[in-house]
Amino acid sequence: MSIPIDPGFFATFAEITNCVCMSWFDFDLHLPITDPTWIFLLVLIIILFAPILLSRLRIPHIIGMILAGIVVGEHGFNILERDSSFELFGKVGLYYIMFLAGLEMDLEGFKKNRTKALVFGGLTFAIPMVLGIWSSMSLLDYGVTTSVLLASMYASHTLIAYPIVSRYGLSRLRSVSITIGGTALTVAWALLVLAIISGMYKGEIGHMFWIALTVKVVLVCFLIVFFFPRIGRWFFRKYEDSIMQFIFVLVMVFLGGGLLELAGMEGILGAFLVGLVLNRLIPNISPLMNRLEFVGNALFIPYFLIGVGMIIDVRTLFSGGEALKVAVVMTIVATFSKWLAAWMTQKIFRMQTSERTMMFGLSNAQAAATLAAVLVGNKIEIAPGVPLLNDDVLNGTVVMILFTCIISSVATERAARKIAVQDSTDELEEKPREEENILIPIANPETIENLVNMALIMKEPRRKDGLTTLSVINDSNASEARLTQGKRYLERSAKVAAAADVSVDTVTRFDLNVASGIIHTMKEHNASEVVIGLHRKVTLVDSFLGTLTENLLKGTHKQVMIVKALMPVNTLRRIIVAVPPKAEYEAGFFKWVERVCRMGIQLGCRVHFHAHPDTIGYLKGYIFRKYKGVRREFTEQEDWGDLLLLTGQVNFDHLLVIVSARRGFISYDPLFEKLPTQISKYFNNCSLMVLYPDQYGDPQETLSFSEPVHHNESQHYDNIGKWFYKWFKKS
Questions:
Q1: Within 10 Å of residue 3's Cβ, how many Cβ atoms?
Q2: Which of 474-481's residues contact partners 24+ apart within 8 Å by CB, and which partners?
Q3: What gap in Å lies between CA 629 and CA 572, rounded to an integer?
């Protein structure tokens, strides 16, 4: 049976097919591209492939972004237009660079080197000003005002190459701190020169101008320095959601930048100041810091660099005439003056050559403040139709930005690589130490985040591993539900560490009991120490530490840290360490001192040691040799019985670290038996860590896991004493 087909069907089908093909393959390409989807796609392709291609040529990634901006911009192939999206994301990227510079700065190192930073800031401003005014007046025949504004452009610089330093993990170097401090000073002075010249031609300069500017800047700085840290600490304690914390930090950054712009200065200084005041609330090794760096380095900063490249017109190099002369003079004067400032600083303070190269590399790039000055100067008219800075200066500035950014990136990359190699060589030459592997037993979901964060700030900062989380399931009550619950806890711990870019080994173990499982896992995974949560007393017969912890202390002589965190770790303001007499004779003395010092550095808080005078000598010697950057205090405490004197010094936002010892070892004191009572009574409202250091020898006694509850020997002695007292009293 045949079905008749209408001949018109084939004609209709052909028309539909032809229309579809035309719509797919026949389209008009208009440049520059204006569709947001394609703009964002091209930017992402540049961000993805520019580093891949240039890494093979050993060219810094930053140069790749700038060169890509030149190629796709209006002065290249005109593929993309520098529209409002590039201005928006570019400004965000610039704020991000300054904010991260303040956030990652070693504040204690900066305090020690503030004189060097002040000298470098003065030199890196004064030398370009002097050479700039001389070269502009003698070589380019410009007037005094034009020469001063042009010289201020040489004096200012942008930390374009800072992401290179951050990538190598060298943000806390002395030379980096000096350069960042000098950058804040010279940019502020350069912008002040711009504000004065701009005000002169607007007729605003007078006594009230200076008074108003000073009052506004001082008021805004006071608001940022005084209120922002307090608001930040309150917010981080109240809201632990990672997204809310990230958005809150961005709000603070742009609020600080906006307030300083209202005061009449550039917002980048406000972003830098916000980074400084939030420095101690966001540890370098923390999930929040990792998110901030990731978003900035992945999107905002590359957007800014591509936008800078889109401004550059390479054709001015080949146009000849006055424009080429201006470009050559500007580039040479700006580069030489910055090198001279770094060289003089190195000679004055007898610094290393690599430090000089680092300071020169970071301070040579011209971008943000330079662009602001040249655009403002180009709009100011000193006569009808005659701008203060003509088009030759505008084109010369663009060329100067290109070459100074390239020189800055290459010099910084070279210095960073050399310093990193030197640090690695020094580490290899040191005496080999025990490999760090922190074991974190997990049982309570409420303590997972605090325990992992505590371990993160104690670990070796450069290692991206070294953490093991453990879930022990008792054989006697094992079930599918407990196994699923334990896996869920381990996944959560891995997510917390992964947010800080640290990998975690997760272990699920079946054993006779929890203490046995922890001890066996320590041996199998070669754990160097254990971080465990403080036991919650459930019944009256429970001891303060709990049966689990007491059996753990008897079963291993590795370092055990028992933690009770009442607030997020990053909001702690001080660490108070109570050290018993003769603690320096224990095998793990320097290990726990190192861990405490790392905590002090990461949190940026003061570490206050209360110890015997003899012990203080060892503490000072080790800290001065290994951790000079720690803010520390020492108070002599002759007798361990004086522990109650600390009650007036420990506040709710402090961490009290009590260094104890196992029974029978050198620093053990019978007064340790009163610790549980004293802690429960006097230190119940503060975060706590009870620390048992490494001690030589085998476990004193074989663990008996058949006893459900193990009482401390001192409790038996106390009970016997009370019985005798009552018996004699009745008699």
A1: 4
A2: 474/510, 474/511, 474/512, 474/513, 474/514, 475/510, 475/511, 475/512, 476/512, 478/510
A3: 18
DSSP of 94-118, one letter per residue? HHHHHHHHHHSS-HHHHHHTHHHHH
Closest CA to 329 of 131, 509, 184: 131
DSSP 165-228: HHHTT-TTSHHHHHHHHHHHHHHHHHHHHHHHHHHHHHT--SHHHHHHHHHHHHHHHHHHHHHH
444: nearest Cα among 516, 546, 552: 546
Q: Name the nearest CA neighbour of 366 among 319, 332, 416.
A: 332
Q: Tens of pLDDT along 261-273?
A: 888 777 878 888 8
- For residues 637 and 611, is the Cβ–Cβ distance under 8 A? yes
Q: Could you give all domains of the chain from N- to C-terminal order, each with its CATH number?
A: 39-421 (1.20.1530.20), 450-527 (no CATH), 529-705 (3.40.50)
Q: What is the pTM of this model?
A: 0.75
pLDDT for res 728: 41
What are 611's strand-pairing partners?
Answer: 636
Q: Are 637 and 670 contacting, i.e. CB atoms less than 8 angstroms apart?
A: no
Cα–Cα distance for residue pair 96/109, rounded to 1 Å: 22
Cis peptide before 32 (omega within 30 of 0): yes
Amino acid, res. 366: Q
